[in-house]
Sequence to fold (433 residues):
Amino acid sequence: MALTDCVDDADLAAQHSPLMSPLVWDLAHIGNQEELWLVREAGGRPGLRPDLDHLYDAFQHPRADRPALPLLGPDQARGYVSRVRAETVDVLAAVDTAPASSPAPELERAERLLADGFVFGMLAQHEQQHDETMLATHQLRRGPAVLEAPEPPAAPADAAVLPSEVLVPGGPFTMGTSDEAWALDNERPHHTVDVAPFWLDTVPVTNGDYLAFIAAGGYTDPRWWTEAGWRHVQEAGLEAPLFWSYDTAAGVWTRRVFGRTEPVRTDEPVVHVCWYEADAYARWAGRRLPTEAEWEKAARHDPASGRSRRYPWGDADPGPEHANLGQKHLRPAPAGSYPAGAAPCGARQLIGDVWEWTSSDFAAYPGFEAFPYKEYSDVFFGPDYKVLRGGSFGADQVAVRGTFRNWDYPIRRQIFAGFRTARDASPSDDGRG
Ligand code: AVJ
Ligand code: FE
Fold:
């Protein structure tokens, strides 16, 4: 509600970028999905407005076409989502959300949705995913600033003296999950992956690091780019991250952040770069992007116990000391922040701050089963999408964990995405030499 109450009705119905829906579409879509999956499918109730389904079905209408639809107006949408939520609370009071009594595939569909409260978790995540999308719409929106948030905490004293990279030991680890109650279908099932030893950046690549790539002519040298990336840089005229401008009078790069223009802060993780830019930077630096399995091993593997944790710091849910999540701050925290959120390998900020591009295509894990609908993940598997991991300052903790998988096209930059780089370790690297 905070993301929609801060602008007027015309603004809510406007399309701020062809990449995004009008904010009023996201708002009613959140309610419509909740009605569809929770109230009707799991709760077995007739629902409120099944006639609206087609308007808020993302697969029937691409984002660019949504402003022309006969959508609910802002007040109608607010009324609709609050009536759906009242029904949700009523369903919650009436149903059994105990863990499943038999293996998932044997259960009736509604029973399976309700076991462990999965459908409630799924819709909470869906709402928060759209809240992050709506925050990205706010960042694209022109005009004066309407969102306010406190600055993230200052970097700890040791941020300046951290090693640039950490060693992640080789060997098998458990990737994905079969027992995290609210994990979505693409995170399942757990499986063993053997990962060769590698070195990973301790912290995400910063604006300062990225400025060096720009200054070195990174955007004009085809050596660093894949063929598709080089074509894209030229066609799209890319020369810096999205929302950056060069102030020729002052001789500095500036960045527009939710309606305010400021000098680029060199100690912050870079954000709003596409996969092609991340990949080119890594090559220029003599490195590469980590694979998705490498990222997850760095974030979850505990060499002491041999098991995979829920989060880098352990199994406890995220707290403000662990990670920059939940739109509490409207920017990434300085690189090296959140020592309490460090992984066993020593890497920091794997969760929160910026989504991290990996080198991997979005693919099904062995034994994958689409649930509850193919359009959540199944239809996106394949070489068109790259995986991002870890969540951003705009993502809520209910929708981020060590196993969570996000994906997007390699050209997308409006998402809160950055990256860190990696390199192979030689088998004799033991982190002491
Ligand atoms: C997982 C973030 C790629 O926003 O397209 C929202 C989440 N799926 N509604 C997206 C989603 C359906 C999805 N991502
Ligand atoms: Fe959605």
